[in-house]
Amino acid sequence: MIEVKSIINGEERKSDQYYYRECPYDNEKIVTKTHIASIEDLKSAIDIAREIFDNDRYNWVSDYKQRDRVLFKIAERIREESQTLVDLLIDEIGMPLRQAKAHVNAAADIFEYYAGFGSKIYGNVKFLPNGDLIQLVKEPVGVVGAITPWNFPLTQSARKIAPAIAVGCTIVWKPASYTSGISYYLAKIIMSSGIPKGVINVVFGPGDKIGSELVKNNKVDKISFTGETTTGKWIMQEASKDLKRVSLELGGKNPFILFKDANLDQAIKGLIYGMFRNAGQACGATARLLVEEEIAEKVENKVVEAIKRLKVGNPRVEDTDVGPLVSKSQENKVLSYIEMGLKEGYKLLVGGNKIRNNGLERGYFIEPTVFSNVDNKSKIAQEEIFGPVLVIIYFKSEDEAITIANDIIYGLTAAIWTNDYRKALRISRRIRAGSIWINDAYTQPAEGLWGGYKQSGIGRELGLQGIEEFVEVKMIYNNINENYLHFKQVYKY
Ligand code: NAD
């Protein structure tokens, strides 16, 4: 069992209030004991981050070479510590072994990608017609409050922490409560990478206490949040009180559009990968399969066959494909959606039950589940279930597929499967989502882009665009023309 404490100005803080986290595949095993920070702890974390930023202490804001070295070192240390990180991912959220390894690598990739950025961020300069010169410089936004979810705890944090470090921000990080152990471990890795103490502080506690105070505190310049759309809406409303900058990475219920001319076997593999990764607890999951009606029956048979081949079980076992849900409450939520689908009369093609046998008695396992011929207007098609439940929706034409794909509050991702590339590009233009995959699903390279249209969020992460979320741009006006021609146009003297 790991004892998790907040780390403020480089020092670990104990508390007399704590909670225990059970392992989702064996609820008799306790994984972490987390000390809950007080509001005073949080305030001292914000104060130190503010002080370092405002005074450029340790030359943190000005010395980008130092920051570049730190980022390279963090990436290296994550790779060195990958076994421990994988173990924690398995024990805290039940992420299957192979997926956990890929997740750790993806987090290291993000730190590596942003390492070196500090020396490569430039502004712009321009001579004006009157001979004067303007300089547009990029500066760090200031103190960043990073609030992260439990479902992909390393990459979601890396997407905020790495670019914030690259540009010279200071950080107060509030990780999700389910994943305090892995967040604490990542924080220790970051602390051991040459970063001055207090530049990043990590504070553990409930979202509605610690998270909300971080959002409200007027010494914080920016909130970078990943989580549920409802939480994101509240954060945006609260941040408006002092016009704090926000970026929000929120929910999704994403279409996977399958045409009859696609390579169906490849498409099913893509669908399974996009849908059942992390037991479907993924914002970008391809949770609505939109299939051309003519091939619906054939595709449904293939989907069922593929699901029957999936290994659901102990996430520590090498060949497990689908692990448990993160918690009892998440399991109950998913089961209530399955019940809703059945009540609405949709045909269950496969799954629908809890699994409590063959050594899985003490975990939160649900069979991969598929509903056929679902109306896109129904709740099981419109709402984020965040579990292993796929809904299949039929379409007759390209236009109808696009209408159904867009007919939802979310706009995070979409996959388009066809061998007609002109058609795929035509559709890509018309789908309102931040990431489109053509004949692929759920790949997110660090060099790429991530973010939502509509109620899936505001702002972008990853790639060059991810840097822009952590900078302000300032104009410096240099008068070169001593005649002040522009004054003379307005004043007569
Ligand atoms: P959540 O909104 O419950 O919690 C996310 C974080 O916010 C946690 O750290 C939580 O403690 C904190 N929080 C909760 N209430 C808060 C408040 N009032 N003020 C400040 N902070 C608060 O989400 P979750 O259950 O941890 O994560 C799952 C959700 O995240 C899903 O909806 C999923 O789609 C979304 N998600 C989105 C992306 C993306 O990139 N778009 C990525 C991963 C997850």
Write a short abstract of this structure:
The chain is an alpha/beta fold and 493 residues long.
Architecture overview:
The chain is an alpha/beta fold and 493 residues long. It has 2 domains: 2-250 and 456-476, Aldehyde Dehydrogenase, Chain A, domain 1, CATH 3.40.605; 255-438, Aldehyde Dehydrogenase, Chain A, domain 2. The protein has 16 helices and 25 strands. The chain has a 7-stranded mixed β-sheet, with helices on both faces. A 6-stranded mixed β-sheet has the order 10-9-8-11-12-24, with helices on both faces. The model has no long low-confidence stretch (mean pLDDT 97).
Mean pLDDT score = 97
Distance between the termini: 78 Å
Low-pLDDT runs: none
Number of separate strands = 25
- Per CATH, the class of the largest domain reads Alpha Beta
Shape: globular
* CATH fold-level label of the largest domain: Aldehyde Dehydrogenase, Chain A, domain 1
Q: In DSSP terms, counting alpha (H) and pi (I) runs of 4 or more, how many helices? A: 16
Strand-helix topology:
Elements: E1 2-4, E2 6-8, E3 11-13, E4 18-23, E5 26-35, H1 39-54, H2 64-80, H3 82-93, H4 97-114, E6 124-127, E7 133-140, E8 143-147, H5 153-167, E9 170-174, H6 180-191, E10 200-202, H7 207-216, E11 222-226, H8 229-239, E12 245-249, E13 255-258, H9 264-276, E14 288-292, H10 296-309, H11 328-343, E15 347-350, E16 354-355, E17 365-366, E18 369-372, H12 379-382, E19 389-395, H13 398-406, E20 410-411, E21 413-417, H14 421-430, E22 435-438, E23 453-454, E24 457-458, H15 463-468, E25 471-478, H16 485-490
Parallel strand pairs: 1-5, 8-9, 8-11, 9-10, 11-12, 13-14, 13-21, 14-19, 18-19, 21-22
Antiparallel strand pairs: 2-3, 4-5, 6-7, 7-25, 12-24, 15-18, 16-17, 20-23
Helix pairs in contact: 1-7, 2-4, 2-5, 3-4, 3-6, 4-5, 9-10
Residues 147-152, 156, 174-177, 207-208, 211-212, 215, 226-228, 231, 234-235, 249-252, 283, 384, 386, 412, 450, 452, 456-457 line the site of nicotinamide-adenine-dinucleotide.
